[in-house]
Backbone:
């Protein structure tokens, strides 16, 4: 055979392969774009929700009651801010049907409070005698409670303030751990290092156990809606768990949204403490044309276009939050 014949055969064989590879590359590129978009939208919405936690109207409800970590929280206000911002970023702010569909991919929203946690998740509610349905609702706030082998119980907080019950005397105590060491014989209060380890483990384990149950219940709900995805509790990094124990805040899981040939699975935590932020810049990536919002100290600089006071205003203008290293 002549060289030209071999060339024709090669082209005939290679063209379908190259075409398939091109399609796959396009799917991967689109999947990555969606991953970035959803992650940015999730982080912005969670930060707005966390900020809304402490928008208290009355001065006597502001931070400062015995602990720098104490803060009166407004769960409904935080939930409303989260849904509003996420809907803006998803382009469904006025589409309540689509917002309902969006909630099918959010198995749990957890509010980490100073002395306990609350979760917004699906639950089975009865309607009449023969009908029931799943709906999102706030679960009752649960304290961070630990009980030892002697029947002593301790309700932890995000710092060393506790409420303790001593089974041998039937007495209740309330105060700082080091202050109660001399007043009670509860073993855990006699060692500060062990106390802190048990406190952290109790808080993390309590939240994880409940989240696993919420995920299972959400799977039943999602199945009824035709969502072909199994919701599971992802492994949170040690840094993220430490962040949840250092501040009142919001923890949200977003899972199961199709992105190319895979599914989106992520979570975000936002602290509710008020901080003084540097200017927020809205810039454009000249390569992709995507718009991002970032702080001045961000090394991933884009072509700056606008200055915003907060993330919500930037998100409303179509700027996605970029996570800087």
Residues:
């Amino acid at each position: 055979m002549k060289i030209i014949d071999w060339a024709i055969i090669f082209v005939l064989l290679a063209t379908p392969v190259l075409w398939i590879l091109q399609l796959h590359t396009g799917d991967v590129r689109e999947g990555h774009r969606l991953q970035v978009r959803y992650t940015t939208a999730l982080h912005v919405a969670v930060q707005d929700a966390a900020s809304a936690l402490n928008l208290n109207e009355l001065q006597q409800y502001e931070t400062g009651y015995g602990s720098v970590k104490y803060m009166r929280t407004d769960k409904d206000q935080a939930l409303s801010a989260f849904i509003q911002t996420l809907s803006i970023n998803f382009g469904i702010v006025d589409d309540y049907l689509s917002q309902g569909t969006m909630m099918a991919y959010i198995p749990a929203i957890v509010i980490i409070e100073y002395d306990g946690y609350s979760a917004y998740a699906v639950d089975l509610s009865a309607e009449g005698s023969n009908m029931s349905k799943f709906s999102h609702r706030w679960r009752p706030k649960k304290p961070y409670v630990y009980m030892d082998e002697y029947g002593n119980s301790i309700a932890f907080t995000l710092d060393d303030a506790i409420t303790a019950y001593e089974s041998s005397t039937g007495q209740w105590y309330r105060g700082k751990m080091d202050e109660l060491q001399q007043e009670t014989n509860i073993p855990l209060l006699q060692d500060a290092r062990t106390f802190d380890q048990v406190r952290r483990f109790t808080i993390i384990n309590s939240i994880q156990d409940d989240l696993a149950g919420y995920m299972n219940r959400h799977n039943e709900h999602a199945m009824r809606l035709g969502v072909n995805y199994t919701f599971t509790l992802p492994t949170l990094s040690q840094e993220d768990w430490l962040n949840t124990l250092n501040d009142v805040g919001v923890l949200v899981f977003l899972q199961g949204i199709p992105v190319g040939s895979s599914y989106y699975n992520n979570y975000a935590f936002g602290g509710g403490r008020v901080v003084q932020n540097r200017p927020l810049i809205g810039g454009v990536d000249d390569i992709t044309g995507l718009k991002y919002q970032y702080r001045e100290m961000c090394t991933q600089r884009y072509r700056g276009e606008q200055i915003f006071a907060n993330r919500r205003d930037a998100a409303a203008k179509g700027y996605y939050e970029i996570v800087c290293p």
Q: What stands out?
A: The first helix runs from residue 3 to 52. Residues 57-65 have pLDDT under 50 and may be disordered.
